[in-house]
Design brief:
This protein is of the alpha+beta class. It folds into 2 domains: 91 residues; 115 residues, Cytidine Deaminase, domain 2 (3-Layer(aba) Sandwich). It has 9 helices and 5 strands.
Length: 222
């Protein structure tokens, strides 16, 4: 049955307008965001199928390519789903804002929501001013961390551009285990040495796990 053929009080948009979002099921809310179904399946039925088969949590953890392998999901719908997931992460992060870094736990709180479900490693830098306030962040690389790939030029270019005196290195472990590897230690040591030559201090290197963190370097934030 097409959406237009459904009783008006059963259509997600009409229910939303009449009663508000709290009266809609997850599938109906999902349908409003996806907007359209396929020739053989209306958007409500599609939303019910997707949630029943995968669950919102699993859908939001998929990559763009993985989503497009699901029946009925093309590039546009895959991007819509990932946009919902990203907004959710940013909302959670906005509820516990961190503007000043005082310790590794602050860094963990700042990055945890966005990195906790990533299926590949992401290497970021967090840029600080002399008062340890955050002045910027930059994604340096995605994929397996390799000392030969993490080039100091790419790491320190945004820091120099933003006139930062300090940076913190941040990356996640998709396994959930935040323990540093030998490669983590090597990368940190190499970048600390490079930063000293450029006048930009690497004050910490934080690894984000599922619900824990560790660091390969913990220098004083002064």
């Amino acid at each position: 049955m097409k959406i237009k053929e459904m009783p008006s009080d059963s259509r997600p948009r009409e229910k939303f307008l009449k009663h508000g979002p709290e009266f809609l099921s997850e599938a109906e809310l999902f349908a409003i965001l996806l907007r359209t179904g396929t020739i053989n399946e209306n958007v409500v039925d599609m939303s019910n199928r997707l949630i029943n088969e995968y669950g919102l949590d699993k859908l939001f953890e998929c990559s763009l390519k993985e989503l497009q392998k699901i029946n009925g999901i093309g590039p546009s719908k895959a991007m819509q789903i990932l946009a919902m997931a990203e907004l959710g992460k940013r909302y959670e992060q906005s509820k516990k804002p961190v503007k000043k870094i005082t310790c590794a736990e602050d860094v963990f709180n700042y990055f945890h929501e966005r990195l906790k479900d990533k299926k590949q490693e992401e290497f970021w830098i967090l840029m600080l001013n002399t008062q340890n306030n955050i002045v910027g962040e930059e994604l340096i690389s995605k994929g397996i961390l390799d000392a030969s790939i993490i080039h100091p030029r790419e790491v320190f270019r945004p820091a120099i551009k933003n006139s930062c005196s300090k940076i913190i290195l941040v990356h996640n472990h998709p396994s959930g285990d935040a323990s540093p590897s030998g490669e983590d230690l090597e990368i940190t040591k190499r970048l600390i040495e490079a930063g000293e030559g450029l006048g930009v201090r690497v004050v910490d290197s934080v690894i984000v796990g599922d619900n824990s963190w560790s660091y390969t370097e913990n220098r004083k934030l002064i």
